[in-house]
Design goal:
This protein has one domain: Jelly Rolls, CATH 2.60.120. The chain has no helices and six strands. The protein is globular. By secondary structure, it is mainly beta. Strands 1, 2, 3, 4, 5 and 6 form a six-stranded antiparallel sheet that branches. The protein has strands at residues 9-13, 17-20, 24-43, 53-58, 64-72, 76-92. The relative contact order is 0.39.
Length: 100
């Protein structure tokens, strides 16, 4: 039996912004650098809305991969405070997924 591991699409981020403006699946975030009282908050929004939190505020630690297997239905908006450099892994597509 084979185990299939998804190959994530990715976005490298260091500031607040939209990673996706359509539905998908968040896989996780690798934080390569974090300082100056860093925080990350993730919202399910295609623009800059903060009314649908996906992951509430957390303090990231540099050199850490956070597994976050959550569907997002509208988009992926990430708010960063402090200094953070990270790579966000996600799968794009609708539900059921149309990967591509």
């Amino acid at each position: 039996m084979s185990i299939i591991t998804p190959a994530w699409d990715y976005a490298v981020i260091s500031a607040t912004g939209n990673v996706r403006t359509t539905p998908g699946l968040l896989g996780g975030i690798f934080v390569s650098a974090a300082s100056s009282t860093p925080t990350i908050t993730i919202y399910d929004d295609a623009a800059t809305g903060t009314s649908v939190p996906l992951v509430t505020v957390f303090t990231p630690v540099a050199g850490t991969y956070y597994t976050l297997p959550f569907k997002f239905y509208n988009g992926l908006y990430i708010v960063i405070s402090g200094t953070v450099s990270a790579t966000v892994g996600y799968l794009r597509g609708g539900f059921p997924f149309n990967i591509g």
